[in-house]
Amino acid sequence: MKRVFIAGIGAGFLVATVPFVTQMSGVAVWWSSSSAVAQNTQKQQALQLRLEAEKQVLTKDQQGKQQVNWQALKGQAVVKPGDVLRYTLAGENKSDRQLKNITFNQPIPKGMIYVLSSVSASPNTKAVYSIDGGRSFVENPTVQVKLANGQVATQPAPASAYTHLRFQVPTIAAKTTVKVSYQTQVR
């Protein structure tokens, strides 16, 4: 049985792009022929990111109906092929000011397949997807497929083609948190 060890989930799977420089008031930039100097006259904005992972556990209730529960993965958790994991990314604005145009990039970990339509996000958060290693993102990735008759058709990309997810958050109010979650399955 093939096993995958999940260690340091927060450090290993989180890539966040936060365009702070264009959003900070009080930033002055001086250009000269050989250098650039930036000064922030106010306290820097604080966006704290947290990534958590949970494993899906299926049980049956007294009537035999299947129940879905989620078990937190901590430390060096062991998962096996077929296991479904749910990742939750929380971005907490610890500042006293609204943050604008925040982008969270999440790679699909090696050995995992994205579970289609599994994204759950805070209101106004837009999810887009990449099937080319994170070079481009679209709402509905497609692939060209050669049909039996030799013609080429455009079809929705299979789950196994997804490589990255991107969550675009227009604003995060002061002292609030936005959350996004998605699921993957161990190959």
Query: Any idea how many domains?
Result: 1
Question: Mean pLDDT, rounded to whole units?
Answer: 82
β-strand percent reads over 45%
Q: Give Rg in angstroms.
A: 20 Å
What sort of overall outline do the alpha carbons produce when their principal axes are compared? Answer: globular
Question: What is the makeup of the main sheet?
Answer: 6 strands, antiparallel
**Could you name the CATH class?**
Mainly Beta
Shape-level CATH architecture: Sandwich
One letter per element, helices H and strands E, the order comes to EHEEEEEEEEEEEEEEE
CATH topology: Immunoglobulin-like
Question: What's the N-to-C terminus distance?
Answer: 12 Å
Number of helices: 1
Describe this structure in words.
This protein has one helix at 9-13; strands spanning 4-6, 15-17, 27-31, 36-40, 47-60, 66-72, 77-79, 84-93, 99-107, 112-114, 120-121, 126-130, 142-146, 152-156, 164-172, 177-186. The protein is built from 1 helix and 16 strands. It has 187 residues and is mainly β. The strands form 5 sheets. Strands 5, 6, 8, 10, 11 and 16 form a 6-stranded antiparallel β-sheet that branches. A 4-stranded antiparallel β-sheet has the order 2-9-15-12, with no helix packed on it. A hairpin with a 5-residue loop joins β13 and β14. Mean pLDDT is 82; it is low at 5-41. It has a single domain (4-24, 44-186), classed as Immunoglobulin-like.
